[in-house]
Amino acid sequence: MARIAIAHERWTDIAGSEQVTQQLTKTWSETSVHVPFAKKSLIPEDLRDSFHISPLQVAYQLIRQRTYAPLLPLVPPAMQWGSLRQAHDVDAVVVSHHAFALAAVGAAQAINKPSVAYVHSPARWAWDARFRQEENRSKAGKAALAVLSARARANETRWAPHVTSIVGNSSAVVKRIEQHWNREAQVVHPPVDTEFFHPDEAIEKGDYFISVGRLVPYKQVPLGVAAAVAAGVRLVVVGDGRDMDRARAFAGPNVEFKGRLPGDEMRDLIRGARALLMPGEEDFGIVPVEAMACGTPVIALGKGGALDTVKPGISGELFSGDGEKEVIANLAEVLKNFDDSRFNTSTLRNWAEGFSEAAFREKMAEVVDAVV
């Protein structure tokens, strides 16, 4: 069994990329996790002994963990010169990359080990000016993001040619890797906890649609709210974030905001929904597959990761749209005409099983075995 060092961008939230890293640690019996800084309270108990945190943690503590943005330009040197440089006994380095973690490839080269980059995406905000425009609306924020974007592009351009093998989390991400990095990559979809997310026959379908996740600009939750109002259907919004005020501004009496909920409450609301909405472009989108695993179809913008997971008539419906008005109008049309009878719980469940944690571990083991 191979011994693997895992380099992860940061451990400041528990989201899809952290789920990926946790499953990577379960793929091999001997693993270590290397991060530049972390909220230690979020490190799972069973991983604490295998975590290595760089001296950049001191700076993160000094700013009281309020934000990590100012530290991002320091992630590459922390990755190159940190604990990975001492990991001479490993067989390979697996990098969980968003924007700056790819610099860990430099450490892999220094210890003469092959590397595999699991790419959640080449930094969309770095390569896509339109994405940056929507992500930050203040002049100061745009200026800061422009500087950070230049550094992220330089970091990816510097290290992408030296990765032994590259994996993208969706077909859309693989295309971006080919476009921005001029490298071939293969798809391994992220792991979905299909054991926790499963149907419950005791919960009947309600007369509402649902949105679940962080309210941040690229997810476009406010457009889903506006479409529900236009269609005259009920929408339950689960989650919180900096786009909350904008979402509330679009809302009517048929929209209910639940905020953040415990996992089991959120799961039951998904089980009872007619469909889950995904109005923004995701790199992959774990939450939609969690909904499918619960027997709930997904209505998604036909871009990005949704093209891998949402199959019309099988796991949900796709709609098109480029500008905000078009997205709202087209989604509202789908909501008004949504036919619940087209979808079957067992079919949805079987489709979701193809994205299970076990499937992810098996595929990643094959990728790493090929480079070791």
UniProtKB/TrEMBL annotation:
Keywords from UniProt, A to Z, are: Transferase
| One Pfam family here | Glycos_transf_1
Q: Per its UniProt entry, which superkingdom is the organism in?
A: Bacteria
Span of domain Glycosyl transferase family: 195-337
What SUPFAM superfamilies does the database record attribute to this sequence? UDP-Glycosyltransferase/glycogen phosphorylase
Q: Name one GO molecular function term.
A: glycosyltransferase activity
Would you tell me the protein name for this molecule? Glycosyl transferase family 1
